[in-house]
Give the backbone structure.
Amino acid sequence: MTDTPLLRVSNLSKYYGARLGCTDVNFELYPGEVLAVVGESGSGKTTLLNCLSTNLAPTSGRAEYRMRDDVWRNIYDLSEAERRFLMRTDWGFVHQNPADGLRMTVSAGANVGERLMAIGDRHYGNIRASAVDWLGRVEINEDRVDDQPRSFSGGMRQRLQIARNLVTSPRLVFMDEPTGGLDVSVQARLLDLLRGLVGELGLAAVIVTHDLAVARLLSHRMMVMKDGRVIESGLTDRVLDDPREPYTQLLVSSILQV
Amino acid sequence: MTPLRVQSLAKTFTMHLRDGVVLPVVDNVDFEVNEGECVVLGGPSGAGKSSILKMVYGNYGVDAGHIWLTHDGVDIDLATADPRLVLTLRRDTIAYVSQFLRTVPRVSALDVVAEPLVIRGADKAEAQDRARTLLAQLNLPERLWSLPPATFSGGEQQRVNIARGFITDHKVLLLDEPTASLDATNRAVVVAMIAEKKAAGTALLGIFHDEDVRSQVADRIVDVTAFAPRIAA
C-alpha cells in the first residue's frame, strides 16, 4: 500500500427528490485497499456505489480521483468522453447480474477483447491471446472462448464478467454483490479467485454486499450503512468482532452459524 | 526500547440487543513485555484475558488507554491507529496465533502458513519452503499440506495456525492458548518453538491454561483480576 490515496470522497449525498438515497459519506481509498460497504436493502449502499462509479450524479459532495498521470480530478467534473474512457480503462464495474455487465450475444473472447479494443488495441492475435489468458485466470477453459455467455452457468458468467473488467489492468473496481445469487460452492470459488486477483494485482476495490462473510474474506476496511448514512466504519475484523452500533450488533448477531 | 507497553487500558461492552446492558471488562490495564520475554496473562475464565489480547492486536477497540508498539524504531499507539496503520503493524510488527483458525475455501494449509511472509514481499517458493519446515516440525502429516484446512481436526488446524504465527520474525507475538488442542508431543514442540522465539528477542504475550506449559514458558505472570473494573455502586 502506498501513502497517497486513489479516491477521496467528501460529503457525498444523493437525494431522489425529497427521498434520501445516501448522505454525508466521507472516506479515502488507497491503492490495494478493499473497502466493503454493508447494510440491508434500502440502506443506500447501492446508491453510493452508483454515485462513486458515476452512474448516478450526486446531489452534493465531491469524489476526487487520482488519474494515471497523478492529477486529481473531481469525477463529476469530467467530460462525458473522459468519464467513458475512465470507465473502460482504469475502472471496472462488476454487476450482481452478469448479464448487466456482459454482452450476452457475442463470444466470451469478444467480451474480454472488447475492452482492449476500446483502448486502441487492434491486433487480433494479441487480443485473442489476452482473452484466452484472462479466461484461464478466471478458470474458464480455452475451448469455451468462442461460446456466447448465454450458454454459461451463473458462476461462469460472473467469472467472465470479472475477466472482462480486469483485462485492461484497472486500478479501481466497483463490485455490487458480486457473489449474490450464486450457489455457495460457486461463491467460494469466486471469492477465492477474487481474493487472489485483488492481492496479486494490488487492486483497490469498493464492494457492496449484504453478506458479512464476503466482507470479512475480501475487505480490509468496512463501512456499515443504515438509512442512507454510514453509522460505523473501521478495520473489517474490528467492526465484525467488536461492533459498537446497535444496528451493527444486530447485523453481526443475525449471521447463521453452520 | 520495549516492544510492547500497555497503559491504562479500559474496555466495556455495551450490548444494545440486551437493552443496552453495559459489561465492564477491564480497567487500568498496565504492563509491558520486554525483548526475549514471555509474559502470560493469568486469571480465571471471564477475567478478560482474551479481550486484552484482542485489544492489543487491534481486533477489539479500546475505550481508553494506549498500546505502544515499537515499529521501525518509532513508538506507535495501536489504540488510536487508523485501519491502514493497524494492518501495517500486523504485517511487520505484531503477529497473533488465535485460538481457532479462520479458513479460506480452496487455500492449502501450506499457503495459509506461507501467507504472512508472502504479503511482506518474500519469494513465494522460499516462503513455502519455510512453511514446510514448520509444518514438519509440528508433525502435521505431509499428505495434508496441499489441502485446505477446513476439514482438519482441531489439533491439526491449531498446528497450521501456530506455524502461520511463527513463520515471520515479528517483534511481538500474541498467543491465545496455542496448545489447547495438542497432544503431549506437540505441546513440547510448541514449548521449544517459544523458547527459540525468546532467544531471538521476540516479545511474547500469551494465555496458557495448561499449567505445565505455562510453567515452562512464562517469565512473568500478569494477574488480570487486578484489572477488574470497580463496579459503580
Notes: The mean pLDDT of chain B is 94. Chain B has seven helices and nine strands. Chain B touches chain A at residues 13-17, 54, 58-61, 83-84, 86-88, 104-107, 119 (CB under 8 Å). Residues 184-199 of chain B form the longest helix (16 residues).
